[in-house]
């Protein structure tokens, strides 16, 4: 397994992604962005990039907030995330910059790229698709669904998979229905898998706050990863 940190910039901010790939596999391989939750790029996202590398991809854990910028808890995480929720065009530009950085790496087949994201990162990769990006597919894992408001009329060419916990208090049934309608109107090839009894952050082993609606669920975690792997095989194979 090979790995390196990659600096890149957007709107004057220095960002730092983490990239992992299997050196034993010859030639450029498909690249998969990993978009982080509200706390910033951390160990979980980097570990997921390594898992993707083991599957034959180049995993790239992107950075939204800036090199070395991480939240220390819910209050600080929310302060870091909010400006990007308020300015979705800025967020979309930042995710696109990460995609172009990934595509510029020698180890990556620039024509075969996809993106996955967790929580806030799920919203990020949905926005990547919403902008009409030519990325082949995106996967939102317990992501936020609210529409950005600046992509009406844009056709979505990327395939979309959303993996959602039915009991997620941050994404009620009405939001799921709204996303279905939005994706259909944009002409997307979409799927939404709903896991019963699962709350927000169901893939995060450290999530154990029922009062906040963030609880790890081993079954939903396992099932959602199987779905993600199958989806990536479909869109990048």
Tags for this entry?
single chain; 237 residues; alpha/beta; Rossmann fold; eight-stranded mixed beta sheet; two-stranded antiparallel sheet; 6 helices; globular
In CATH, what is the class? Alpha Beta
Structural class: alpha/beta
Q: What's the number of extended β-strand segments?
A: 10
What level of helicity do the residues show? 25-40%
Which residues form runs of ≥5 with pLDDT under 50?
Answer: none
Overview of this structure, please?
The chain has 237 residues and is an alpha/beta fold. It has one domain: Rossmann fold. Helices cover 35% and strands 26% of the residues. The chain has an eight-stranded mixed sheet, with helices on both faces. The chain has a two-stranded antiparallel sheet with strand order 9-10. β1 and β2 form a beta hairpin. The two termini are 21 Å apart. The model has no long low-confidence stretch (mean pLDDT 97).
Q: What's the topology here?
A:
Elements: E1 2-10, E2 13-21, E3 29-35, H1 43-54, E4 58-61, H2 74-86, H3 88-103, E5 108-118, H4 120-130, E6 137-141, E7 159-165, H5 173-185, E8 190-195, E9 208-209, E10 214-215, H6 218-236
Concise description?
The protein has 237 residues and is an alpha/beta fold. The protein has helices at residues 43-54, 74-86, 88-103, 120-130, 173-185, 218-236, and strands at residues 2-10, 13-21, 29-35, 58-61, 108-118, 137-141, 159-165, 190-195, 208-209, 214-215.
């Amino acid at each position: 397994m090979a790995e390196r940190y990659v600096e890149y910039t957007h709107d004057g901010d220095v960002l730092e992604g983490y990239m992992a790939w299997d050196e034993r596999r010859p030639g450029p391989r498909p690249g998969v962005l990993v978009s982080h939750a509200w706390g910033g790029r951390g160990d979980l996202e980097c570990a997921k990039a390594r898992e993707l590398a083991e599957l034959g991809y180049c995993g790239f854990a992107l950075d939204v907030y800036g090199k070395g910028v991480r939240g220390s808890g819910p209050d600080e995480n929310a302060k870091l995330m909010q400006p990007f929720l308020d300015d979705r065009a800025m967020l979309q530009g930042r995710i696109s910059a990460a995609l172009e950085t990934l595509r510029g790496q020698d180890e990556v087949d620039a024509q075969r790229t996809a993106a996955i994201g967790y929580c806030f990162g799920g919203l990020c990769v949905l926005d990547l698709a919403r902008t009409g990006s030519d990325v082949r597919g995106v996967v939102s894992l317990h992501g936020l669904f609210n529409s950005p408001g600046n992509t009406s009329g844009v056709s979505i060419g990327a395939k979309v998979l959303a993996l959602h916990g039915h009991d997620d208090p941050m994404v009620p049934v009405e939001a799921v229905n709204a996303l279905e309608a939005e994706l259909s109107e944009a002409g997307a090839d979409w799927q939404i898998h709903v896991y019963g009894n699962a709350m927000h952050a169901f893939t995060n082993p450290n999530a154990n706050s029922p009062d906040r609606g963030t609880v790890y669920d081993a079954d939903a975690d396992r099932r959602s990863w199987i779905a993600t792997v199958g989806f990536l095989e479909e869109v990048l194979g």
